[in-house]
Amino acid sequence: MLRRTKIHITLGPASSSETVLRQMVQAGVDGCRINFSHARPEDARQLVGTVRQLSAEYGRPIAIRQDLQGPRIRIGEMKEGRALLEAGQDFVLTSDPIEGDSRAVTVGYRDLPKDVRPGEIVMIDEAAIHLRVVASDDTTIRCKVLVGGELLPRKGINLPTTRISMPVLTEKDKADLEAGIRLGVDYVTISFVRDAGDIEAVRQFMREREACIPIVPKIEKREAVINADQIIAAADGISISRGDLGIEAGYQEVLPIQSYFVRKCHDAGKMVQVGGELMDTMIKNPGPTRSECVDVATAVLQGVDGVSLSGETAIGLCPVQTVRILDKIVRRAEVALGYSEGTGDMDVLAPQPFEPVRELKLKGIDALLVEDGDAAVAAALSAARPRCPILVVAEGQKANWLNTWWGVYPVESVAAAKRQGLLPPGACVLRIAGTQYP
Description:
The protein has 16 helices and 21 strands. The protein has 438 residues and is of the alpha/beta class.
């Protein structure tokens, strides 16, 4: 049985070797994420080369996603490597370069003292430490510790109620994006998006370099939820990044926000991925928790186009096993949705803009075939969630990008589809032409 929901992995120390990456591709990987918060351009060049080699060897597209760091704010170094903060004590964040201790630490964003307001909350190290802003001036933020703990160097800062003035595309991101353009990545995810203007800034940067790469914003801030409609309209797809989202919006809001964006993306005909702690325990263990299995299945039942692994494959002890288990969970969830058969009627999930797709009669049809590589047609068919596979004749970046869409299988030719078993002997194929759609 074909798996419709796509599996994406994050490359890192645990998965960068050709041997391990080959095994993960064999296990069913559809896309690879290169996290430029950690990867250097020279590392990315090697990873892209290996993925392209394996894609050609196995004769199927593998999407390469460049994940830009965005305006991530971190604290600086610690004098003794760590410090203990206690609830109720005073603590200072400063833009001045100092060696941190239990009284003060440097923040990497110089304008943060100008952006925060008294009463706002500052979270450090994935919300392990909570501070409340008491007062600030041009260089210093005076805080009261609400939740203490061990403070380690270079940990990230989250500001759930603060509107920061830092642009979404930092100088580091600009250099990394130029590298990504040269490397020929298939799509770009941008971090900490707040509104459609952030997406347009990245698109304009690409236009100035005569590049046209799909842009997928990561949903991880409250502001992105408030501006959902304009962000989805401006984007080529959406990535729901639940790690920072749970911190910024509140843990209890993650599932409602996930459901909200999946539904909105279906209505708009946009690709939507979910990632962040899908199978987090497999970073250190050979199997997932039962609740993680339910979490993955829930995303599939909601109708996501893809599920994305992070630390599980970047630094985990068993990256290949993680992909294999994820593949089993996804396939079983798809059976529960009724996709165990190769043919059937078009589901009623088709959104309003794609009414022509809804009218298709698919009784006895084994596959839909888009021979002209029309991405808009493929997206419309994918949004309708047919039970039969959607084959699209496409190559290169277009094929890799289309491989992120639910139920879409890019092929070099009809003959290649037959060789790969996507079109069995005697299959009944319905050809779809782009001109059939307004």
